[in-house]
Amino acid sequence: MSDGLRARIRAGDREAFAELYESYARTVYNHAFRLTGDCSVAEEVMGDTFLDAWRTRERLEPGDGTLKPWLLGVATNKARNANRGIGRRLAFLARRPAPAPVADFADEAAARIDDTRRLAAVRTVFGRLRRGEQEVLALCVWSGLDYAQAAEAMGIPVGTVRSRLSRARARLRKLADQRLAEEKKEPPHRRGEVQREAAFAALPFQEFQEDPR
């Protein structure tokens, strides 16, 4: 983006705001979708986010830093208001039909199937995390904010982001392991359904163990 974008937006420059939209619309939509699990709600959240950002542009602090934390902070609040039942919304993703896997039974393919089974388990249990844990994972892991930026977006101290993210990762890992153990006890026909669902689960959730730096 061009230099001085923040100052231009604060001054009400519509071309500057259009530049901001072009740069971050997809990022805001993806973040909203992860928190709501519904594409139509995510689109509404994205629109409301940029509308609110324009209305409150004069509150922007001066400087040259990225506006991504500001936008994602607005989007997080909009998503929270749009859907208080985040867990129920996200749960449908694990049940969404997915294409049948391509027939490939090489050792490498078997390893990929194991990975996607775990991703399916992660997606299934993600909605069982606390709201704050879901939000910090969405901001730090999938939207790529560092600790300071996530703290700015959520309006909480950096130390809280660190501890919340650590707890969220540990909890998500534990719940995913439990889910995988449960799947082993399910009837063969149900295990087949889980394998088909796994293809859809292989989305950005694969990064849930990585540091946001």
Task: Characterize the structure shown.
The protein is mostly helical. It folds into two domains: 1-94, Orthogonal Bundle (Rna Polymerase Sigma Factor, Chain: A), CATH 1.10.1740.10; 113-185, Arc Repressor Mutant, subunit A. 71% of the residues lie in helices and 0% in strands. The protein contains ten helices and no strands. Helix 6 packs across helix 9 and helix 7 (131-142) crosses helix 8 (147-154). The chain is elongated. The model is unreliable at 89-94, 98-113 and 198-213 (pLDDT under 50).
Please provide a brief summary of the model.
This is Siderophore-interacting protein. This protein is an all-alpha fold.
Q: What would you report as the Rg, rounded to the nearest angstrom?
A: 19 Å
Helix vs. strand class = mainly alpha
Give the overall shape: elongated
Strand and helix order: HHHHHHHHHH
Number of strand segments = 0
DSSP summary: helix tally: 10
Largest sheet: none
Which CATH class of the largest domain? Mainly Alpha
Percent of residues in helices comes to over 70%
**Spatial separation of the terminal alpha carbons:** 22 Å
Strand fraction band? under 5%
What's the number of domains? 2
What is the H level of CATH, i.e. the homologous superfamily of the largest domain? RNA polymerase sigma factor, region 2, helix turn helix motif
Please name the CATH topology of the largest domain.
Rna Polymerase Sigma Factor, Chain: A
Mean pLDDT: 76
Low-confidence stretches: 89-94, 98-113, 198-213
InterPro entries: RNA_pol_sigma-70-like (IPR039425), RNA_pol_sigma-70_dom (IPR014284), RNA_pol_sigma70_r2 (IPR007627), RNA_pol_sigma70_r4_t2 (IPR013249), RNA_pol_sigma_r2 (IPR013325), RNA_pol_sigma_r3/r4-like (IPR013324), WH-like_DNA-bd_sf (IPR036388)
Protein name: Siderophore-interacting protein
GO molecular function: DNA binding; sigma factor activity
Domain RNA polymerase sigma factor 70 region 4 type: 121-172
